[in-house]
Write the structure tokens for this entry.
Amino acid sequence: MAGFNDGYSLEAASDGREFLAPDIHGVPSVKMTIRHAESDVFRRVKAVEIAGLRLALAGVDDPIERQILAEQASLRAASYLVCAWELEEECTQPNVLALIKTRPYLAKWIDETAAKGSDFFAPASTA
């Protein structure tokens, strides 16, 4: 009988997995190591961003400005999902953030990739 944690590892989520990130045309082109959305780092950063967003939105009535603040918080959190890459620039959180700010398709791909459990965790045993 399978147990709750069969196939799951917080270590696997936090260490990340190597993927080929697509270019603007969807062609896999650059190796990136992406953490899973359940990684320690991402869960903590996401909590900090949510708390900060609540404070930032407190005095903002304009719906467009509220959306901009929410999108910025989401991108900052997503920038912690990338932990390595094969690009000329060093893989730092500010560099990842700068990259995904200018390439929305890549931010979407990172978010979708980080959410796929099947790419990070082994199937649960059936024995």
User: Anything to note?
Assistant: Helices lie at 10-15, 40-57, 63-78, 93-102, 104-115. The chain has one domain: 15-119.
